[in-house]
Specification:
six-stranded mixed sheet, 34% helix, 249 residues
Amino acid sequence: MVTIDNLTVSYRQHPALHHISGHFVAGALTAVIGPNGSGKSTLLKSIMGLLKPSGGGVRTDTPRSRMAYLPQATEIDRSFPLQVRDCVLLGCWSTVGAFGGASRGMRARADAAIHAVGLEGFEARTVGSLSSGQFQRVLFARLLMQDAQVILLDEPFNAMDSRTTGALLDLIHQWHTQGRTVVAVLHDDAQVRAHFDQTVLLARELVAWGPTAQVLTEPNLQRARLLAEAWDDNAEICHTDEVVAGSHP
């Protein structure tokens, strides 16, 4: 489904990911873990084509129109006075375009998605009036509308209460039973062991990739910690700056 081929990505000549290779199993639930600054978010953005590699690359068997990406909540501006239903309908953007209108069927699907995440009655509320947990449910409803085959989630449960986390994990397991490929950046090892069958452990370089029980071993986790302690952000290891895809250095 998604193959990472000797991928290197750098920011201002400092490596964020260094010679990463591996294959995301189609239909699997894969967690991406590692110390802060280990390149987890960079990996997801590279898969979506949002970042330009310094070397190597990403190959996908799925068109990016069939891939969905949920960034970290801190990267999303909630100040725009957008209603919940309209935010969810943005999941149809690739279908209707900038000037297309939402059909009655799309609105019915949006309401069904809002109901599926437990926010029925919130359709006309503005996203800025929601709690962080409620807003994350809205974003998952938008993912439901996208009907993507590959779903990338960057810290989807960060600062979420246990009830919201449980509800969103239920949705992820539904996607799994539907044969969708889910890749999620996570920090909770226990959560990874309980819910994700595959794990990628990063520390800017690849520490381990495979079945979760084989990756989350103490030697692997210790190696990731030691690699993180050795990082030197003043060392110019990579010589090609990473840029946003389509832009110029």
